[in-house]
Amino acid sequence: MASNKALVPEAKEALERFKMEAASEVGVNLKQGYNGDLTSKQAGSVGGQMVKKMIESYENSIKTK
């Protein structure tokens, strides 16, 4: 079952900033709080950008080891 609960609660603010940054990069205007008025395409774009950046970060981390 999916959960929207952060595994590390202390990271909540950083994750929120990360989401806002990813949204800005794909041209989606997020607001603080409820964003249920986004289209599926917009929400998917934000999520996809977040995943892309996480994979890129991981690849860079293993490249430097």
Task: Describe the fold and architecture.
There is one protein chain. This protein has a domain at 12-23 and 39-65. Helices cover 58% and strands 0% of the residues. It has two helices and no strands. The model has no long low-confidence stretch (mean pLDDT 91).
Topology:
Layout: H1 12-25, H2 40-63
Helix pairs in contact: 1-2
Short description:
This protein has 65 residues and is mainly alpha-helical.
Supply the helix-strand structural class: mainly alpha
* Proportion of residues in helical segments: 55-70%
Number of strands: 0
Uncertain residue ranges: none
DSSP helix count? Answer: 2
Terminal residue distance: 35 Å
Rg estimate, integer Å: 13 Å
Could you name the key traits of this structure?
65 residues; 0% strand; mainly alpha; globular; 58% helix; single chain
